[in-house]
Specification:
Keywords: Signal. The chain is mainly beta and 283 residues long. It contains 2 helices and 22 strands.
């Protein structure tokens, strides 16, 4: 093999490697350079029927049995608390948490977890192994009065949650099922197979939380967020790729917070089915 041929092959491989590095750097610096996104939204496990009465009856039977100390829903937990003072008020949060690892449900907006280093409870950016999911009973106490109480299930609000005023008078009561408000509405392509078409989160009679629309092959078609009955943030449409990959089709920018005056939604970006950027709004 001639030196010229070997040099040519080396140059070709080096140029491809350099091009790949540049494309990778471009992708990291410009999130719109490709429409391909994290495949966690692909329904390897679809959301179950939100409110299964059979499951609830079984859980009621379990309550009648003698529960083991610090064991909730069959999972061993530890007790924790946070403490802070705001404007002269002593605020405590008493809760249970589990050391069991579990990937957050991508369909749920708020995942509650305990940061042991910061001694705080967070609802965003949970990463397996970084913190501990709340699991079991929770109480929020202000100046020795319980103002909020409820139950967590792997970081999601579960069962009945109650709010009280400073005189311990009940102000509000909500019901959840593993993070979904009990009032949430579900539409199906097929009632027999329970193939989900749309999940509309509802709380206090208004849309509140993460919204999902699906293709009939169960792949996510549209995602977005509601606050107080209004669309907020980025709403994303996806191409139907038969669950092989998740590729953005279009992003529509809505107001960042509900009831923002004089805001008009606009298309932020569009991609073709292969993930190539075809349109991006100028800043």
């Amino acid at each position: 093999m001639s030196r010229y041929y070997i040099s040519f092959i080396f140059l070709l491989l080096f140029s491809r490697f350099s091009f790949a590095q540049k494309e990778d750097a471009k992708s990291k610096s410009d999130p719109d350079s490709t429409g391909l996104v994290n495949s966690r939204l692909l329904p390897t496990t679809m959301p179950l029927l939100l409110f299964d009465d059979t499951k609830e009856k079984e859980e009621k039977k379990e309550k009648k049995k003698k529960a083991r100390k610090n064991e909730w829903f069959g999972i061993k937990t530890r007790k924790g608390y946070t403490r802070q003072e705001i404007r002269g008020q002593q605020i405590f949060e008493h809760f249970n948490y589990t050391e069991a690892t579990r990937n957050p449900d991508p369909y749920i907006r708020d995942i509650y977890w305990f940061d042991a280093q910061e001694k705080s409870i967070n609802t965003k950016q949970y990463v397996t192994g970084k913190g501990y999911l709340l699991h079991g009973p929770y109480e929020r106490v202000i100046n020795e009065e319980i103002v909020e109480s409820g139950m967590f299930y792997y970081g999601t609000k579960h069962k009945t949650w109650m709010l009280f005023d400073s005189n311990n008078i009940l102000q509000d009561k909500n019901h959840f099922e593993a993070g979904w408000p009990r009032e949430s509405r579900t539409k199906y392509f097929n009632q027999t197979t329970k193939t989900i078409q749309e999940i509309i989160p509802v709380q206090y009679g208004l849309e509140e939380g993460n919204y999902f629309y699906f293709y009939e092959d169960k792949q996510v078609a549209v995602t977005g967020e509601y606050q107080y009955g209004e669309k907020v943030g980025l709403w994303t449409e996806y191409w139907d790729n038969n669950n092989t990959k998740a590729v953005r089709k279009r992003e529509i920018q809505y107001q960042e917070a509900a009831y923002t005056k004089n805001f008009r939604p606009y298309i932020r970006a569009e991609w073709d089915k292969d993930g190539n950027l075809v349109y991006k709004k100028d800043n």
